[in-house]
Design a protein that fits this description.
The protein is mainly alpha-helical. The protein has 24 helices and four strands. Strands 1-2 form a two-stranded antiparallel sheet. A two-stranded antiparallel ribbon has the order 3-4.
């Protein structure tokens, strides 16, 4: 893979869909630190990278970004109304955070169902169905009359929410130029922070400003998905999906070929899939541990007014969007793992001011802490895409992310429950707790976990998404021995089959 212009030559390694080299466990461990050395690829001008995208690639990126943004908006509507929901349903804050926990737990179901559907039937219609469910379930949340209804609706919302991330990432990134992946990955991931920012602003505008209390925020959340659905309906399937579909059709049996691809992917990559789930568990602990209970901490422990909470959250999310974009872009030069580790070290150093400064100066700490948290996350969409087997890219990216969410689903409940063991003097009838202490310790442990996981894991920077480079597809559609390039047996008939795949891709 190479990118050339008048002044710049950019080269990045291209890896097959299999592990680049067979190694013993001991040798693999020995290579973890040496392989952290930044490749120091010369970084092209970011504006020149963005100019490489054609109109259709931009539209795919934007619809994925908007879908992921509103996914995040709908999720944070509960985080930003914990106190109001607790008062409405006569529950404690920790009981209301079960609504967050259930969403995170049930997201893995949605990722499996919608991920398989998107890899088998295309990205378009599963995306549309997801958005329709957003509309229905956000409206339903706004009409809940008791705590049990609230928990039931949020659990169903978790299923819908879980199906979107992998689809949005595949739609936005799989057709984009390889050289622009890092930058676009960072930009895509910041849909999450942008959704949080929008939720913060609209929560201030809509919550407790009418006689309906917190409910208008959820009713409003059901409106923009209508526009996102219309946007997606105007676009075709991605080129990468159409190439795979053409190969499946050429094999004569779409379903059996799809199942065969699944068997090959599981046989070859099961250990990698487990690693991806563990990595996403750490990352989801990092985001939810630093964000979900933070507005409650500001309001309860430090007595911030609603306006002050809103300003702090807006600034924090501006930092998140800045960090994700910059670190995602930098990972193309410094490598995915190295970028994650360095930004996690910086984030850990900022935890004390982020959680122990009790005045308006915390705004600066919030900006830079979320710069670090979402900076690390900015690498993740493309890192997961590059690690994933090509035939099940949507399923693997979405499911590893959502299973990580399942593992980390109790983050806010853990923090709020432990925080209630460290009471502060009450203010009137309001019980106060040292939530900042708990968030600080919790996040310190999480950063350490993510650093270790990034250190021990693989990295396939610059991997080709072209079907002609996918040995999994070759084996699944041909059934012969694969060409591994590492001294293994080679069935010469594979050459002809690879040429057939290349011809099919060219026709697409």
């Amino acid at each position: 893979m190479a990118y050339n212009d008048e002044k710049t030559r950019y080269e990045s390694p291209t890896y097959d869909s299999a592990v680049p080299e067979h190694m013993s466990v001991g040798r693999y461990i020995a290579t973890r630190i040496p392989t952290l050395k930044p490749p120091m690829h010369k970084a092209p001008n970011p504006f020149r990278l963005l100019a490489m995208l054609n109109t259709q690639q931009w539209l795919f990126f934007l619809v994925g970004f908007f879908g992921w943004t509103w996914d995040a908006f709908d999720f944070f509507t509960v985080s930003l109304t914990v106190s109001d929901l607790a008062k409405e349903f006569d529950k404690t804050a920790s009981q209301i955070t079960w609504g967050i926990t259930l969403v995170l737990m049930f997201r893995s179901i949605g990722s499996v169902v919608f991920g398989i559907a998107a890899d088998r039937y295309g990205r378009k219609w599963p995306f549309v169905v997801n958005c329709i469910l957003f509309i229905i379930l956000e409206l339903a949340t706004g009409f809940c009359q008791d705590y049990k209804q609230f928990l039931a609706v949020r659990a169903l919302y978790g299923v819908a929410m879980g199906g979107l991330y992998g689809n949005a990432a595949a739609t936005a990134l799989e057709d984009c130029p390889a050289e622009a992946r890092g930058l676009l990955s960072g930009m895509l991931q910041q849909g999450y922070a942008f959704g949080y920012l929008l939720a913060t602003v609209f929560a201030r505008a809509l919550v407790n400003t009418t006689s309906h209390g917190w409910r208008p925020l959820f009713w409003f959340g059901a409106c923009p998905p209508v526009l996102i659905i219309a946007f997606r309906l105007c676009l075709p399937e991605t080129k990468s999906y159409l190439e795979r579909q053409a190969v499946r059709e050429a094999s004569g049996n779409l379903t059996s070929t799809f199942v065969a691809e699944g068997r090959v992917a599981l046989k070859r990559h099961w250990l990698l899939l487990i690693y991806m789930v563990l990595l996403m568990s750490g990352f989801n602990f990092m985001s939810h541990g630093s964000q979900d209970l933070y507005p409650t901490m500001l309001q309860n422990q430090y007595d911030f007014s609603p306006n002050a909470v809103t300003v702090t959250q807006v600034v924090a999310n501006l930092g998140a969007m800045t960090g994700g974009t910059i670190i995602g872009y930098a990972s193309q030069t410094f490598g995915r793992r190295f970028s994650i580790i360095v930004i996690c070290l910086l984030g850990g150093a900022l935890l004390y001011p982020y959680t122990f400064v009790g005045n308006k100066s915390v705004i600066a700490a919030a900006f830079f802490e979320q710069f670090c948290v979402q900076g690390a996350w900015g690498v993740i969409p493309i890192h997961l895409m590059e690690l994933s087997p090509g035939s099940f890219r949507t399923f693997v990216v979405g499911t590893s992310y959502q299973l990580g969410n399942l593992v980390s689903s109790a983050s806010s409940t853990i923090e709020s429950t432990i925080g209630e063991r460290f009471p502060l003097p009450p203010k009137g009838s309001t019980h106060r707790y040292k939530y900042g202490l708990v968030i600080c310790i919790f996040m310190g442990c999480v950063y350490a976990l993510v650093i270790v996981l990034a250190l021990v894991g693989p990295e396939y920077l610059g991997r080709s998404f072209d079907i002609a480079h996918d040995n999994d597809m070759i084996e699944a559609t041909h059934g012969g021995q694969r060409r591994d390039g590492m001294g293994g047996d080679h069935d010469s008939s594979d050459d002809g089959h690879e040429k057939g795949i290349a011809i099919t891709s060219e026709r697409v």
